[in-house]
Amino acid sequence: MTRRSIGIIVNGVTGRMGYRQHLVRSLLAIRESGGVTLTDGTTIWPEPVLVGRNETKLRELAERHGLTDWTTDLTSALARDDVEIYFDAQVTQQREKAIRQAIEAGKHIYTEKPLAEDTAAALDLARAADAAGVRTGVVQDKLFLPGLRKLKRLVDGGFFGQILSVRGEFGYWVFEGDWQPAQRPSWNYRAEDGGGIVVDMFPHWHYVLEELFGTVNAVSCVIATHVPERVDEAGQAYPATADDAAYAIFELDGGVIAQINSSWTVRVYRDELVEFQVDGVEGSAIAGLRSCRVQHRAVTPKPVWNPDLPATEDFRAQWAEVPDNEEFDNGFKVQWEAYLRHVVAGEPFRWDFLAGARGVQLAELGLRAAREGVRVEVPELRS
Ligand SMILES: NC(=O)c1ccc[n+]([C@@H]2O[C@H](COP(=O)([O-])OP(=O)(O)OC[C@H]3O[C@@H](n4cnc5c(N)ncnc54)[C@H](O)[C@@H]3O)[C@@H](O)[C@H]2O)c1
Fold first, then answer.
1. Where does the GFO/IDH/MocA-like oxidoreductase domain lie (predicted)?
2. Does residue 12's CB lie within 6 angstroms of at least one atom of ligand 1?
3. Residue 246, Cβ density class (10 Å: 0-12 exposed, 13-18 middle, ≥19 buried)
4. Per-residue pLDDT averaged across 253-273, rounded?
5. Is 16 touching ligand 1 by the criterion CB < 6 Å?
6. Which residue, 100, 106, 216, 227, is most buried by CB atoms nearer than 10 A?
7. Is-contact 251 214, C-beta < 8 A?
């Protein structure tokens, strides 16, 4: 059995996503499970090169995992021949510049979303990467979650008949940082630092809607900054300049209407932090991160509106759990494995920079719809 080592720069590895999801739960987990095995028996073996701004943090993090390859100098890491992939999990604003540098260095590139801060920049990156012949990918982790995989299985199996609508509820309370520290980095709440829930979440909604239900043709949206002042990591109060909630309607192919609330200012009375209810003529489903429940038309109750009486039925109990019927691994890891197969063996991988640019476009148009108070059509982006 041949082992094929592949050097991967992990830039922004000290951050929440870079460390937990990408280094620990993906690249190191891939090594723990023996690498990624190709059909010819070769195993791809990721060799992470940790890149960041803070030497002390990098050294400490590397030692914690028995790693030795780390640097604060991105340019020298990009100059190495044994490094074939550049991965970016930095704050969004730093991404474009670093990716351009990686394209110039001829590296394959995988990145967290959003790909860039605006559509023009994202599209330009997609074109530059194409011209340089490098293989690109953008994280679309939600597609690999067990709940959404089961939902996709229902769609593919024709469970819904004609799909009418999708209702998404995403969010939880992010503490303001005064009497309890916030559980998300403060840059998320400053527009000038690339923050905002639309920029953060619409790229996710774009690929979820398109992969499960169809092309997004138009968006209407109301946004709000419900909490106007927050307290940062250093205990300093700062004005929140970015949207912390978005109430959007997306119009999809086939007349499907998707309505998705995204909020960091909502308290959870749901089973999971995100849930999508899909209603079709033949049946309905509610999918979260892990679970997916269904109700077929044959077992649909016939409630009659009568506010004078207490509810006569236990509506929640009338849904059936969809069984896993397969093993679901961590979504970030599954996508990393697919990307590594794409780079090393040329296997298909459709979540590329152009797909990422479409997510950025939806965020940009969502913000425009909110700012101008209008419904905005979504033109098709081409490379
Ligand atoms: N796929 C997902 O579900 C998901 C979830 C959360 C965040 N993200 C994305 O991941 C990226 C990182 O988000 P995070 O929550 O890990 O953020 P974070 O603040 O925890 O980490 C940011 C990283 O960027 C580095 N960095 C580089 N230049 C910086 C600068 N000038 N200022 C501040 N930090 C700088 C930091 O050192 C750190 O390593 C963002 O682009 C975000 O959109 C994706």
1. 149-285
2. yes
3. buried
4. 98
5. yes
6. 216
7. no
